[in-house]
Write a structure and sequence with these properties.
The complex is a heterodimer of chains A (110) and B (886).
Chain A: E1 6-7, H1 12-21, E2 26-27, H2 28-38, E3 43-44, H3 47-60, E4 63-69, E5 75-81, H4 83-109
Helix pairs in contact in A: 1-2
Chain B: H1 2-13, H2 15-39, H3 44-55, H4 58-68, H5 72-90, H6 92-121, E1 132-139, E2 144-147, E3 149-150, H7 151-160, E4 164-172, E5 175-178, E6 184-191, H8 195-199, E7 205-206, E8 221-225, H9 226-232, E9 243-246, E10 249-257, E11 271-275, H10 280-286, E12 292-300, H11 306-323, H12 325-328, E13 332-337, H13 338-343, H14 345-379, H15 381-389, H16 394-423, H17 445-471, H18 475-483, H19 490-526, E14 536-542, H20 551-567, E15 573-578, E16 589-594, E17 607-613, H21 617-621, E18 625-628, E19 642-646, H22 647-653, E20 663-666, E21 675-682, E22 697-701, E23 709-715, H23 720-734, E24 740-745, H24 746-753, H25 755-789, H26 791-799, H27 804-833, H28 849-875, H29 879-885
Parallel strand pairs in B: 6-11, 8-10, 17-22, 19-21
Antiparallel strand pairs in B: 1-2, 1-12, 1-13, 3-12, 4-6, 4-12, 5-6, 5-9, 7-10, 8-11, 9-10, 14-23, 14-24, 15-17, 15-23, 16-17, 16-20, 18-21, 19-22, 20-21
The chains are: A alpha+beta (110), B alpha+beta (886).
């Protein structure tokens, strides 16, 4: 549990949050758990930067928040993707894929 | 972005709810994380600590979230404003004075700007009026500047100009409208068909003129103004196609122009427009070679520059001179912006001078408030030091202080706009009197925007230096001083001294300006017009020309009327005069030739002012006879033609010979070549304006150059109502339908001719007085403050044996130094700026020594008086109290 994961490169946190929310509404803790699970604990996100990121995304109108009860009956703030957030996700995703492919190509070539 | 705004505003106004939500959200996260660690076997305490560390500190995360929501800027701005308002409320005296001073400054600026906006920036209510130009002809050899075009000039110009998208000629000719009610005289504008399309206006009803209407021999048509249609024809919906009668000829109405449309130069509300060839007078003018008759209005074509149009006009003039050498040799053509022509250079300069003056006034107001704020900055040194010590950044402090001054500026602006609303109607006399109705003065959107911008600019002006000065307070010194009393930082004291001296300097500029205008106005109103102005009355009687058709009838009427009027008690001194002094706007000139002398200036006749007067005129007006004789009854319609000339006429045209017995060839068509023998020389009169030197003048007997009625002058000691009744009585006894109009005293006519300079002088004097008062308050404030700061020092001086008198002298000297510096700088600036007033001055040079000295003495006296109160107070300081205070 204590082995260090990979710190997220700058600017990718937004992309991951949007991607997770594309699966359905989720609260902040849930998002951080999901990212860890899906990346098989490789990606660890700084929880201190998760919430400012969520508030920033909300202000930009890409996600919206609403209060709801969890499965074990606690009130939590759930975030979900808006239409413009979905569009943003698409552009960021394709941008990221291009970047990753390009980086991979360079690495393989040398 | 909407979500952005919503979130910012929600964070701002639902501050508590948002904070609680943030709290809940992070708490939920922590709880889940702790649960997770506990489930994986960690002890509760360890799990808690770990979760908190991972979150990176609750408060810090919260702060980052707040930043991410973008609330900081708005929230702190709101805080600053609330804090500023609290500070202003806490010192109501300062706030009230500052707002009043600002309201005066901003109010005066807004009011003057509303006039500038109406008269200079946007004077004409026509679409894209900046593209409208007047085309004029001038003849530099004959010294004829900017007159109307001849008909052939106009035709050539219309056909070949290539630079204007539309062009139209116009002239004015009053006609008698009869049928459908009382006959009346209507202002008629005689136009070529494109007139309305040049101006870019469309009729309310019917159509504008077509080019077919403008042909010679076309059926007569007319367009009415909405006002005339509504009042005279009761808004008759069937007006189009019906017939009206002008000078006994029927015209078919084809259109009605909306009430909002006023013709340039002829802005009468009741108006008729007819095609040029339908007017007998102007139709006859088109056939007279070389007759300049038509003012010409043109709209510049798209993409054509003014310079191109000007060049094209010169080329056309050259072509015309070639085509019609007899009439057009020596003539050239040019264009002038309609806006500038309508407003006139005098109004323009006067308004710009006033705008400059109120700008300076605002500057003094700002300097005053800045000085007050600097004093407050000293009083708040401790507050600022504490804030800095608690970690506020200097930028944040400056922002807060600026918010405070912006609040002050906006409050002052608000009061100023209220002031402007209150006095903007009183500004009407600043408008060119020829065109009072083209665009009313009002506080429009543009004016409000100006006031807002001005308030904010003023806030920056008076707030910036004090804010920087306060925020730069040294932390160490500030806290140390806080123990005792804050003494004023040296830089701040210097700044206050500079401000006080500036106020004096600016006040000096305004006082000199006001003084020059006052001197000029006094000179203008004390000039003798050359005739008697007391107990003389004017009135006008106009005969309908379809009833009184011939000159013989006009003469018969005038003789009959004068004999009836003079039979009324106390009315024996009466005469007709076309025109009497100060009756018409501008010069009325007549071309003439001296019989036997060669034509001058290549065929162009010299001109002189003229008046056609009945025999008693000179006696009524008190115009002295220099030589020869006045007119007599014998100088009748059938008798030998005679004329009287003025001394200025003799000086200009007969400098070395005796004019009596010489003959002048002059008169209106068809009498232009009639010789008139000069029988007398009379004194000069100022007949157009008091500021204009007497022009050469020709008088002819009314009986030999009669008009269809005309203005009347009467000398009597009766009261106005009796005079009017007597004139009415005499008119009615001849023809009960004749109206008597334009009744007023000659003095009133002269007064109204100087109404504009009087009002400008009054305003500038008012601004000068305000500047004086503000500067006095300024130097008073600076000196009392600096002396109150030095109470301790004065106490020591007194206890060491200084006499109270020497203390007073020291204080006065300090004030005098400030005043002297301000006066010196102000005199220099006034010397430079007074030149701008030159065109406004009559009989006073812009660098009039007397005015400069008087302004300086007045200002120095007021400044010293303002210093005297604090100086006395300093003298009375009780050394014991002062030292204990320290």
């Amino acid at each position: 549990m204590n082995e260090p994961g990979i710190d997220l490169p700058q600017g990718t946190l937004d992309l991951l949050v949007l991607r997770i929310l594309a699966l359905g509404p989720e609260h902040g803790w849930g998002i951080s758990e999901r990212i860890q699970q899906i990346s098989k604990d490789v990606l660890r996100i700084q929880q201190g930067s998760l919430y400012p990121a969520l508030h920033r995304l909300e202000r930009r109108g890409w996600i919206k928040a609403r209060w709801a009860t969890t499965e074990n009956n606690r009130r939590a703030k759930y975030y979900e993707l808006t239409r413009s957030g979905r569009k943003q996700l698409e552009t960021e995703e394709s941008g990221w894929k291009k970047l990753a492919a390009a980086v991979a190509q360079v690495l393989e070539a040398t | 972005m909407l979500s952005d705004l919503w979130i910012r505003l929600r964070s701002l106004f639902r501050h508590k709810a948002v904070e609680a939500e943030l709290d809940d959200e992070l708490r939920f996260h922590l709880d889940r994380q702790i649960e997770k660690y506990v489930r994986s076997g960690m002890a509760l305490e360890a799990a808690r600590r770990r979760a908190r560390i991972e979150l990176g500190g609750l408060e810090q995360t919260k702060e980052e979230c707040r930043d991410a929501r973008g609330v900081r800027l708005l929230e702190t701005l709101w805080q600053d404003i609330r804090y500023g308002a609290r500070m202003l409320r806490k010192s109501p005296g300062f706030t009230l004075v500052a707002i009043l001073v600002l309201a005066l400054g901003i109010g005066a600026n807004t009011a003057i700007f509303s006039v500038v906006n109406s008269a200079l920036l946007n004077p004409l209510p026509y679409p894209r009026s900046g593209r409208l130009f007047l085309v004029f002809a001038s003849n530099p050899h004959a010294r004829i500047a900017e007159t109307t075009l001849t008909w052939p000039d106009f035709v050539e110009l219309r056909g070949h100009n290539r630079v204007f998208s539309a062009i139209a000629g116009f002239a004015s000719h009053d006609l008698t409208l009869s049928g459908h009610g009382e006959p009346s005289i209507v202002s008629t504008v005689v136009v070529t068909p494109q007139y309305f399309s040049v101006l870019g206006v469309t009729p309310l009803l019917g159509r504008a003129f077509l080019s077919a209407d403008g042909r010679r021999g076309a059926p007569p048509v007319a367009i009415l103004s909405e006002n005339l249609w509504r009042t005279r024809y009761g808004s008759d919906p069937k007006i189009l196609g019906s017939s009206i009668v002008l000078d006994h000829r029927p015209f078919t109405v084809v259109g009605v122009m909306p009430a909002g449309f006023r013709a340039p130069f002829f802005p009468a509300a009741d108006q008729v427009w007819i095609p040029l060839f339908q007017d007998t007078l102007f139709r006859s003018f088109t056939k007279i070679p070389g007759r300049h008759m038509l003012a010409t209005l043109a709209r510049l074509g798209a993409g054509v520059t003014r310079a191109q149009a000007q060049a094209r006009m010169q080329a056309l003039a050259a072509r015309l001179a070639h085509k019609f050498p007899a009439q057009n040799a020596g003539w050239t053509a040019g264009i002038r912006s309609l806006q500038k022509e309508v407003v006139g250079p005098h109004v323009r300069t006067a308004l710009l001078v006033l705008l400059g003056a109120v700008g300076l006034l605002l500057l003094i107001a700002c300097a005053n408030i800045a000085s007050l704020l600097l004093a407050r900055a000293t009083a708040r040194t401790r507050e600022m030091a504490v804030r800095l010590a608690l970690g506020a950044s200097r930028g944040r402090l400056i922002r807060q202080l600026l918010a405070e001054s912006a609040l002050l500026g906006l409050l002052g602006g608000l009061a100023g706009v209220a002031l402007a609303f209150a006095c903007v109607q009183g500004m009407q006399p600043l408008l060119p009197s020829a065109l009072p109705h083209l665009r009313p003065i009002r506080v429009s959107g543009e004016v409000l925007f100006f006031a807002l911008a001005l308030s904010l600019a003023a806030s920056l002006l008076f707030g910036l230096a004090p804010a920087f000065s306060a925020a730069n307070a040294s932390l160490h010194a500030g806290l140390k001083e806080a123990a005792g009393r804050a003494t004023e930082a040296r830089s701040r004291r210097r700044a206050r001294n500079v401000l006080a001296a500036t106020e004096i300097a600016v006040a000096m500029v305004l006082l000199v300006g006001a003084g020059l205008l006052i001197r000029s106005f006094a000179a203008l109103t004390s000039v003798s017009p050359g005739f008697n102005t007391h107990h003389v009355w004017q009135a006008e009687i106009s005969l309908p020309r379809f009833e009184y058709k011939t000159p013989e009838q006009w003469v018969a009427f005038s003789n009959q009327f004068l004999s009836r009027l003079e039979a009324e008690p106390g009315m024996k001194d009466a005469a007709f005069a076309v025109p009497p002094p100060f009756f018409v706007q501008g010069d009325l000139v007549l071309g003439f030739r001296i019989a036997g002398s060669p034509p001058r200036y290549g065929g162009i006749n010299p001109t002189a002012h003229f008046a056609s007067v009945s025999p008693d005129y000179f006696r009524v007006m008190g115009i002295p006879l220099v030589r020869g004789r006045f007119f007599r009854e014998a100088d009748s319609f059938t008798g030998p033609r005679v004329a009287i000339v003025s001394r200025a006429f003799v000086r200009r045209y007969f400098p070395h010979e005796d004019p009596i017995g010489k003959r002048l060839l002059c008169g209106f068509p068809p009498d232009t070549q009639i010789p008139r023998r000069i029988v007398g020389i009379v004194g000069d009169v100022r007949d157009v304006s008091l500021g204009q030197a007497p022009a050469p003048m020709i008088y002819v007997p009314f009986a030999q150059m009669p008009f269809w009625g005309g203005p009347l002058v009467v000398k009597t000691r009766l009261r106005a109502s009796s005079v009017y009744a007597a004139i009415r009585q005499a008119t009615a006894s001849i023809d009960p339908d004749l109206p008597v109009t334009n009744f007023q005293s000659l003095q009133a006519a002269i007064q109204s001719s100087v109404a504009q300079p009087r009002f400008r002088t009054l305003l500038l004097s008012l601004f000068g007085a305000l500047a004086l008062a503000l500067a006095a308050v300024g130097i008073f404030g600076v000196l009392s403050y600096s002396l109150s700061q030095r109470t301790g020092e004065i106490g020591i001086r007194l206890s060491l044996g200084a006499s109270p008198g020497s203390i007073r002298k020291m204080a006065l000297l300090e004030g005098a130094k400030l005043a002297a510096v301000g006066l010196g700088a102000g005199a220099l600036a006034a010397f430079g700026l007074a030149r701008l007033l030159r065109s406004e001055l009559y009989a006073v040079t812009a660098h009039d020594l007397y005015t400069f000295v008087a302004a300086a003495v007045l200002l120095a006296a007021v400044a010293l008086a303002a210093c005297y109160v604090p100086a006395r107070r300093a003298m009375r300081v009780d050394p014991v109290t002062a030292l204990r205070h320290e």
